[in-house]
Write a structure and sequence with these properties.
Keywords: Carbohydrate metabolism, Hydrolase, Magnesium, Metal-binding. Pfam families: FBPase_C. GO terms for molecular function: fructose 1,6-bisphosphate 1-phosphatase activity; metal ion binding. With 144 residues, the protein is an alpha/beta fold. It has one domain: D-Maltodextrin-Binding Protein, domain 2. 33% of the residues lie in helices and 14% in strands. The chain contains 4 helices and 7 strands, in the order E-H-E-H-E-E-H-E-E-E-H. The strands form 2 sheets. The protein has a 5-stranded mixed beta sheet with strand order 2-1-3-7-5, sandwiched between helices. A two-stranded antiparallel sheet has the order 4-6. The longest helix has 14 residues. It starts with 19 loop residues before the first strand and ends with a helix. The mean pLDDT is 95.
């Protein structure tokens, strides 16, 4: 099946919320304080007694697929080394955002919808936060 797509499920709908987050926390010290606060709060059990689960594989497609199926949020933020983020808008972030929106989720750069960003160059890089609507909107409030 080389060079073919395999449909594993028809009409995937991402849960509106989820308790899984996928961020490369190895870069935590390079993030801004608002993002650090968001991640720290996800780890706090709070009133429910259960913190979010960290599930980061390091494969955009694998992490994104799990997020589609179970809900939650995948993030690849900007940091002190990569001021604009590392993922490319046109051929990484926009296609994933289109897919997640078709499944009922949301794709954002932390402040605006990925699909509303007007590209200024072909290899333009942007931060990416993608997943369940409630989880992405929660992150956007932290970054505001």
């Amino acid at each position: 099946m080389y060079g073919e797509f395999v449909l594993t499920q028809q009409k995937i709908q991402i849960p509106r919320a989820g308790k899984i987050y996928a961020f490369n926390e190895g870069n935590y010290l390079l993030w801004d304080d608002k993002l650090k606060k968001y991640i720290d709060d996800l780890k706090d059990p709070g009133p429910s007694g259960k913190p979010y689960s960290a599930r980061y594989i390091g494969s955009l497609v694998g992490d994104f697929h799990r997020t589609l199926l179970y809900g939650g949020i995948y993030g690849y933020p900007r940091d002190k080394k990569s001021k604009n983020g590392k993922l490319r808008l046109l051929y990484e972030c926009a296609p994933m955002s289109f897919i997640v929106e078709q499944a009922g989720g949301k794709g954002s750069d932390g402040h605006q919808r990925i699909l509303d960003i007007q590209p200024t160059e072909i290899h333009q890089r942007v931060p990416l936060y993608i997943g369940s609507v409630e989880e992405v909107e929660k992150l956007e409030k932290y970054l505001a």
